[in-house]
Target: Acyl-protein synthetase
Amino acid sequence: MDLNTMLGMPGEALRTTRTEWRQSLTNAVQAAFAFHYERNDLYRAQCDAVRVCPHDIIGYNDLHRIPLLPAVVFKQGAGQQILTAKAADIEIEVRSAGSSGVPSVSRRDAMTFTRASVGTLGCFRDFFELSNGTGLFLYSSKSDDAGFRMPKVFDLLTCTLDDYSYATHNRPFDIGEALTQLRSWEGAKARHIIGTPLAITRLIKVLELESIRMNLGSRSLIIMFGGRHQYTRYLGTRDEFDAEAQRILGVGRCGIRDVYSMTESTMVAIECEYQRKHVPHWCYASIRDSSNPAVELDPARTGMIAILDALNTAYPGFLLSDDIGEVDESDCPCGRTGQTLTVRRPYRAAERGHSNAGTAAIANGWA
Model:
């Protein structure tokens, strides 16, 4: 299955045989590697330094050999220097506070923006089965909050709903606006709530303080986009969140979905009804040794998350993040094939030290 078919038919691409998935993914990533190797002198120099070229990427087991770009360079103002595309061809800049709280800026050309929009919308449709219903989008109006730029993501979802509304969750949280809107949709096929984990947690806590209980219905979803790692001390565990959401909003565990993404990548890992985050069919997730990111770890081992993205034409989309996690290639009960990702943050100081040292080693190579 070629890349354009994968983007246009996400349902089929996500449920192909494991053999076909591996071959299709390998072809797409190898082609992306060749694209940047031939057009980006800085990236080619890095590849030549470790003696890797596109001809060396023959099969699925060779993907880990592709040199990585550390995500930290996007936080150091170096994003302009690593472009494969011409600066004049850049259409948008995507910004995020990221996991460290340091602003990250990545750029998209027309091809990347179009591919990412089509691929992401297709995945949203496949995982969330959105074609009607209503949606309450919670976001922050403060520019330094994780959810400030969420409306850009929300726009991809609004076209799949019958009706939708936006509400801010800044302190103090005016519950009246959100509550009135949710109640006005009573009787709708589904009433979805979409926002950062912090925003949805604030909504739940205010409802609890006001002794208000709602039953949004069995077809309703709570969809979370990023930001959880910045507020772990306030949010508690995921199990606690799920229990509160079911008790206050009437949404069961299978209807609570988290989406993991990186500003620097087109990758969106979306949870299925079994709460397993599926890596999209155009990306390869690789777990790396935190002390030596050139070493790929076996599945189920914990390490730094690297994402090899076949869609990005603006710059090499082969990124090493500061996030810690594991990858799993076992079958999922939902029927989708490919990889699933468990994301854990570098909680311990010693772990952070290894992670930063490994990232710095690659960053120094790029410098």
